Amino acid sequence: MAKHFRQQERANTALVASLAGLGALSLAFGFQGRQTDLIEYCFKPSDTPEFCTPDKRYTMPLTEWADLQSEPSSNPKSQIPKKATRLRIITATNPHKWAWGVVGSGFFGLAHTLSKARQHQLVKLLPQHRIEVKRSWLLSKIEAINTARKVEYAAEVDYQLWEFSANRAARAKQLSVLSPEEIAVFQQQAQAEAQAEAQERIRAATETPTAAALPHGTPGTVEEQMRQGQITDQTPISNASNAPAWADLLICTTALIWGNQGSGKSWFLRYLVQLKIDRGYKIVVLDPNSNAYSWQGVAESHHTYGEIERFLQWYTDELTHRYEEFSGVAMSEDEWSDQLWEKGEAITVICEEVTTWANMIDNKDLLNRFFRLALTQSRKQHMPCVFITHNNTQTCLGNVTGLAQLIAKMPQLQLETTIDPNTLKPRASGRGLLKGEGQETWTSVQLPRLDKQITQFTKTPQSVVVEIESPTEAIDLKLSDDLGEPLRTIWLFAKEKGDWVKPRDIQRRTFAVLKGKSSDEIRRYLGVLSDMGYGELDESGEVVVFKTF
User: Fold this and answer.
1) For residue range 405-462, what is the model confidence (pLDDT) as tens digits?
2) Helix, strand or coil for residue 535?
3) Domain 471-548 is in which class?
4) 286-308 pLDDT per residue, tens
5) Can 245-446 and 471-548 be said to share one CATH topology?
6) Listed residue (351, 193, 280, 267) closest to 509, CA to CA
7) Which residues are registered as beta bridge partners of 446?
8) 245-446 carries CATH number 3.40.630.30
9) Where are the domains of the chain?
């Protein structure tokens, strides 16, 4: 059976490889060339034929050109076909790209189906294979025992024959020197000894022998070995470019990430830090087992227990001060939250190796206060923490008593491990168990695949909604031509939104012309636009908003 399965496996592998190669080749054809026809045009202010030089020619898909011709005049881009001069139509270089893509996907799908079919067949044959292995192992052990017993029995027989011949020769010599009376006494003694020996052999033959135990190691018997779980090689399958939706549960709240050594906690933590930076948080790292080089780009990083203790004191004082300040202002909770974001005071504290803090930080009252505030009051003041431990017990969180209920209600992500079949060491499995805030059920999630550990953190650039240097907008958006930068970019963004916008909304888009600008500077730009008649500025509340006319 094993030989037949190996032949099928080799044939299946060759077929899967061939289909994958054909799929890759088809997709390569699908990625080449251009599928749509293009129309080349330019804008002629006069009838001079030399005016449309190569640097003044533009292209557009033919279908889009036709659609613009039927657009109403309210659409600024509908003026292009009317004002532009058609030069020529550039035909598509690869009109069948979609077909190549479908064929390539079909090849890959068929290869995947054959691969899964082979795995399914292997799973079906595993029970029979285990039975054959068990039977073969038993037969080999029985054969080895029988061979050893045969050798032992042959040696025993040879020894008995030698002893019998030696005794016989000795007795013959004794008989030769004995008198008839002595010979009669000797014969009686020999007969009595022979009867006693015969009775002993009969008794031993009629008793039930004890079954011999087979030699074994750990695990012991064959049944114990067959009951052991199979070690499999599990690796992450997700290589998504965007963050998974479930990651939002860990970004804005105080969360716990835990797992055994080798589960990938540090790698995933750095991925989560990058998501928090993209969201707008300032990151403060408390990691006694690393240095500042491992956390390049974060706002602060502290790597000695003395520095960590001083920051914990600042954190507790700052969080308490924010609640006291909020209680004395005349604004809603949302307005207070917007103000913290605009001032850049939203921070996240990354707490690595928390299990060792209780032993290395002497101020136990400070630890108690820090953990209680972080677990109960950090979210509304935008000061959440992320704790990294080996377990989700009170001992791992500063050894502070009375936190069991708070820990049970906080968002948690447990990273699972698998065993490397070669080194027998734990390693990341690419999967985890997630529990949301206040939930009791755990959900299995697939972790994103990371090619390397992140050590340099930068805010991911976002695409600009309006391309202000587009030649079509230079023709149609005449109103913005009179504005200089960065007023023009801010006005175009507000125009695109069509609703009230805040300085924080503009700052989060990371426009190149606004790099390094604070919320107060953007607020002044909005005031200038309002004074110039480009929109309306509402400063009635604590948060300033702007809307274009």
Assistant:
1) 889 889 999 999 888 777 777 788 889 999 998 888 899 999 988 878 888 898 754 4
2) strand
3) mainly alpha
4) 999 899 888 999 999 999 999 99
5) no
6) 280
7) 431
8) no
9) 1-35+92-200, 245-446, 471-548
